[in-house]
Amino acid sequence: MTGIQLTPQDTIERGLALAAAEGADGCVVLVAETSSANLRWANNTLTTNGAMRGSSVTVIATVGAGEGTAAGVIGRSSVTEDSLQEIVSAAIATARAAGPAEDARPLVEGTTGADWALEPEETSVGVYEKFAPALGESLQRATQQNRRLYGFADHEVVTLYVGSSAGLRLRQALPRGYVSSTGKNADLSHSAWVGTATRDFTDVDPLALDAELTRRLGWATRTVSVDAGRHPTILPPAAVADLMTYLFWQLDGRDAFEGQTVFSKSGGGTRLGDTLSPQPVNLHSDPSLSGLEAFAFAVARTSGGSSSVFDNGLTLAATDWIRSGKLESLMTSRHTADLIGVPAATPNIGNYVLSVDGASGATDDLVAGLDNGLLLTCLWYIRMVDPQTLLLTGLTRDGVYLVENGEVTGAVNNFRFNESPVDLLARFTAAGATVPAFSREWGDYFSRTATPPLLVPDFNMSSVSQAS
Amino acid sequence: MPDIDAVFLALPRVELAGAALQRARDLGASFAEFRLERIRSESISLRDSVLESAKDDEDLGLAVRVIHDGTWGFAAGVALTVDEAVRVAEQAVNIAQVSRPINAEPIELADESVYDDVTWVSAYEIDPFTVPRAEKVALLTDYSDRLLKADGVAHVSVHVAAVHECKYYANTAGTSYTQQRVRIGPDITAHAVAEDRFDSMSSCAPPAGRGWEYLTGTGWNWDDELARIPGWLAEKMAAPTVDAGTYDVVIDPTNLWLTIHESIGHATELDRALGYEANYAGTSFATLDKLGTLKYGSPVMHVTGDRTAEHGLSTVGYDDEGVAGQQWDLVKDGVLVGYQVDRRMAKKNEDVLGTPRSNGCAYADSSGHIPIQRMANVSLQPAPDGPSTEELISRVKNGIYIVGDKSWSIDMQRYNFQFTGQRFYKITDGKLDGQLRDVAYQATTTDFWGSMEAVGGPQTYLLGGALNCGKAEPAQSGAVTHGCPSALFRGVRILNTTQEAGR
């Protein structure tokens, strides 16, 4: 394992050549180079940090042809000249020992992308050059002013290279960054949160984040107890993202077809074509969306209901999952598209935009229009309760506010909710414009999301939580 | 005890550690640690008895953590060369320097004995990675077929994850160890689809610190359980919906382990109680000022933490700070008496904790992540001559018996929780009286444990657990076991989940 480190491109060329020499009928090699840097703080001081570099190589070897094709998948971090042969041989041996793959399809053909020869992009702790001192200043200010700050800043760049025996040579680099920040008062009875995705931290100002947290903590000067029950509730874009990301992950076509999700039709089949909402709601993905760019081609290291190792490199096109309230597409591979009877594969895409036709304005406008109800900040610990309706449970946190006559008049206790995001899409009575919104619950994993604020007249706050 | 994997032993671990630690010292680090980790993982999935995916992965890399000018610095890389080890050490010092303006508290660590070049291997029989893939797939296909062929079963999903973790640790105090752990987690679910509804029934087999022998019947009776699952599923599909209300409940260890995990395991992580996790999973109601006085539950509640239980998923010889595995009390006679700590937490709070030593809960899930405090095996102790599950059920006039885990959720301070399960039986006059469906139980942690009237005896004790508990930013995964007997609780709030959905 102490041999020469190969470049990603060489790993792929060498790997494909070794596979062909050993008799594989097809081969895909994925190389992902990752670098990241993070800072974490709590109680106004640093807790942990990290500057990491990682690498992963996945070799997918296929043997046989047509319906008899079998696949073997081996993954390793960092590969050297010496170990590459081992990995390729292991992938081929695995394929030879496996039965025919039910998702087998001809490997995606392609040519060499324009930036194929470029080196991996990198990030480093240098991305925090301005952020770290400003953060330090905000932490000191918080200590002086008897507030407590907690948070996390993360920046990661993944450069993905995909090569195949069918001619594919694709490269794409994606940055992913975010800051998530919580502020509490001295006795920890009140809490507020702000979070945002960022491309490179040039647009993030810790002092401004602190000022916003302080403003919201100021709303808690008056506190009001509200009982459990169904309440008119404004979900700002972040809270909508918390719920919508879970819905997005339920769009698996095969699971729906086999009667296991909210998108299954009773009696058999899927709910494709069904009206989910009378509102003109759209859920849309497009890898080229400005500011939310995602990988432009399918990447799969395992096969499943909506993905296939045979589909690596498949071009991803803009996809409407929900359009004007109707379920338009479910996530499929080429195999599962055939299985469920749709004309083309619509694989998973790494971003989404939820929008309501004709909606404008921001959260503040929804607040101005509400006589009596609640304003949330974000949701947490969201888990499935009943897949049949996509009933989810979770908590409100870090800021539930009372709205009276169009104004925030105080802070309220937290609640446990039980709600289905599918139902909510049909029940909301007001919406704002869609904006990029970072999900507190899922954003560390899935940050390329944009959502509108929504007003739900009867949000089910099932029980009170005394957590703060 | 199995041997340490020869391929791992052939890696230049001592040389790389030496180069990294020396460089860290040269750059002024007052303390430094090195880790070399090789984690092999395998994931096999079948759908309706057909292999859907199978992946063999290996994560191999090195990491350095330093204390420099009182500040942590962590860096990681993948090339196993002296140049890389030196570079990673430099990166660790560099990020410590960049972080200095944000650090208000100089890092001090609780002392620990020095362990010079020790070795530890977890208890298992058959390394899953030595079993031919075809043999594993054949066994899983057989298990899947038994369910798929049964009446009322429309679909079957089978998934097995296996992990083989090798770790070399060395620090500037002179401790070094080589450690190997094997763990495995099966998930088998039968799905039924009817005209108006669908539902599922999963095997209750917990993940375990065992090898492939677990899947062939050592530690779990697959033949028996698989034969019963279709019948249980059919009963559930035909079961009446529960009336929401207040009931006495008997909870099987196959469900209660998760309640322990969420409401005791996480609540007694000291870093959480002190606020260090506030931006992510939250804090804890069990704050340090309540140590020794907080009434966590009824007097029959005795909860321990350990990293020593045989086959425990959190069991180690030594943790990721070079601290030896231990066992201690978290809750005794219903009162909070302990926490799970790492060396920094232990040192900072030694006066209140009453001990100068870490209890060894530091863990990083891979070389690419920083060690943090992770959950030990947290277990509710059985009553030495305690009752059987049937005996506990016989004490209930109107109640519900809850088996197997499913949905879970708890709030940011570990107060308000809500759980469902795999199957629920009505208890009427001390006897099981058919299944119910749409059941969830919801409570506040200390009220719930305060309502625990009795725990079962050792004959009801089972090691439940999870392979993938999440914590920290960036997110890390941890495997943990919870030993648990059956237990009886009075007056628990039961929800009807279809009513919660507004139907």
From TrEMBL, chain A:
Any matching Pfam family: PmbA_TldD_3rd
InterPro entries from the UniProt entry: Metalloprtase-TldD/E_C, TldD/PmbA_N, TldD/PmbA_sf
Provide the coiled-coil residue spans.
none
List, for all copies, the residue spans of the domain called Metalloprotease TldD/E C-terminal.
Answer: 229-462
Q: What is this protein's name?
A: Metallopeptidase TldD-related protein
UniProtKB/TrEMBL annotation, chain B:
Q: Which key words tag this protein in UniProt? A: Hydrolase, Metalloprotease, Protease
Domain called Metalloprotease TldD/E N-terminal: residue spans: 32-96
Q: Its family?
A: Belongs to the peptidase U62 family.
Metalloprotease TldD/E central domain mapped to chain residues? 127-234
Q: Which organism is it from?
A: Kribbella hippodromi
| Name of the molecule in the record | TldD/PmbA family protein
Looking at the keywords, is ATP-binding present? no
The Metalloprotease TldD/E C-terminal domain sits at 245-494
Which N-terminal stretch is annotated as signal sequence? none
